[in-house]
Amino acid sequence: MGAQALRWPPLLLALLTVLLGHSPGATAQTQVCSVDKTFLQVQENENITEALVNISVPDGQQVTLGSSSTPSAFRILENQLFLSVIPDYEENTMLEAHLECKRGDTVVTQLRVFVVVLDVNDNAPEFPFTTKEQDVQEDTKVNSTVIPEAELQATDRDKDSTLFYTLQEVTPGAGSFFSLLGVNRPALRLDRALDFYQWQNMTFRLLVRDTREEHQEPSHTATATLVLKVLPADLRPPWFLPCSYSDGSICIQAQYRGAIPTGHTLLSPLILRPGPIYAVDGDRGINERVIYSIIGGNKDNTFAIDSDSGNLTMTKSVPSPMTFLLLVKGEQADLARYSVTQVTVEARQAHGSQPHFSQSLYRGTVAPGSGSGVAVKDATSPSQPLRIWAQDPEFPDLNSAITYQITNCSEFRMAGEMVLTATAIEQAGVFYAEVEARNTATAGVATTVVEIRVSEQEPPSTGSVPIQDDQHFSIVDMAVLGGVLGALLLLALLGLAILIHKHYGHRLNCCSGKAAEPQPHGFDNQAFLGDQEANWAPAPSPSPGPKSVEVPLEPPSPGSPVPEPPSTESPDPGPFASAPESPVAARAVDSPSAVRSILTKERRPEGGYKAVWFGEDIGAEADVVVLNAPTADADGAGDSDSEDAGQGWGPRGAPAPEDDSTYI
């Protein structure tokens, strides 16, 4: 943009002439230097190449730049004034040229030319930082200023510029916590309560623009990064674990329960449920140490608690059953906050509490030729020794008081929970040892059985098959074998289908809605059929000697198939004096585990008898079989001598079954 001259009023021009030492009359009488313009305006950053001012110089005189001119800003060429620099408003807002007209060394005339530099928006604003990190306490109050305006302000070399600020979230959702105080005031303000456990770090981008509108030209912007680190505040008391959380500020903490035996002082810490007494600072970011103490319910100072670990121990025994309700306090080491929980300890009568083995049969192995003191290996894990252990389900604290011994086998002995050889084992064989667990505190006893096989230890198979040079089976051989096995499987399935159709075809017909034909032997339980049909007459009631076993019988489900009654043409073999033989009756009669059977007269409301087999001794296992009677004939025929005749019972006093026979 070219230089522009201003029109000077005549009065002002006369004043300047007087100031320069000339009068209008002198100008007319004496030839002096003059310029066509003394005041100009130029825009910054513009490279002006044409002359700013034309200078009139009388003959015999020459014009030069005086010392008061703006340094290096002007030059005179052929009586014309030129700019030597590109004007910059931020450096000089006005340039001055001092002209001196001389005749020889004598200054005849002095002139001044003023060049005003106009400001242009040519500079971007600048932040005093690239990234600013700021710590913010979790308990900072809402609407308070987190970072003051002076720390976030940007500067602009364009002195007349107005800056506009914008806060942009980088961390998703962080924008709901902070905002700027105003579009021209970049102070950072908290708008929402902080939560250390949900928002520990939040990042923002702070943008500044030197124009109100984003698309205005020219427009310059600058950005900086704000990183806010949330510091945890001491807001929460200690929490006893385990606890369930409703949010980050509330914990429904645990209460503890345990049991101790009367008359005993346990030396080790009590075993509690759901776990040991343990509390942590609710402000996990601070994690202040917790100190434990008993503040109530400790009658006669029976218990003590370790202030650091929280382990609860006994100081004395409890003579009689009672319940302690202990109040345990967990307090921060800085004494700022605390919480209290309840520990319920029941003192129970310990006598008679029985240990319990996790298995009824353990299996171990030992190599033949083993000497005395060799550990028996676990058959399921041959690399590990066999361990046999029991626990007291009522007093887990007393598990350490349980001792073990083998009662019926001199070849082996117990060493704690391990089984060792007591003598040299020379030959292969199988030993069955009874292990007795005795709780020395409660006098409870339990036993289990260990099967020990004396055999060479085979190395575990890796599952890989070594490749031989002479393979015995080809692919064709394996295919033929597969075909044969497939054919055998098909024949087995066909045979199974025939058997199902033969024995249960009438039921399938019944279920399909058709009337089933009467079957000659409609018993579900074929184990109770001999050469002739079983007699359903009740046996005499059992003597009061053996124990009776009550077997709950479930009523038949609605819609269940009902078996057809047996044929009435079968000969009556006469009443039996005892119940049908149990499947386990195949044992020898002289065997200690031989059983005798009793068929009670008690009948089910829905039909059927309960039959119970008892061993000769109380310790024998009991086999229970529920027998169901066939239904009565359609014409109502039955034994007229039956005491239950006319009540819907089957022939010979047997109840009409409504469901299949059931083994228990």
> Strands of the biggest beta sheet: in what spatial order?
30-29-28-36-35-32
The CATH topology of the domain at 238-348 is what?
Immunoglobulin-like
Rg, Å, rounded: 55 Å
Q: What is the distance, rounded to the nearest whole angstrom, between the alpha carbons of the first and last residues?
A: 112 Å
Envelope shape? elongated
Largest sheet: 6 strands, mixed
Q: Output mean pLDDT.
A: 75
CATH class of the domain at 238-348: Mainly Beta
Number of helices: 4
Note the beta-strand portion: 25-35%
**Oligomer class:** single chain
Would you identify the regions where 5 or more consecutive residues have pLDDT less than 50? 1-29, 459-471, 510-664
Strands, count: 40
CATH architecture of the domain at 238-348: Sandwich
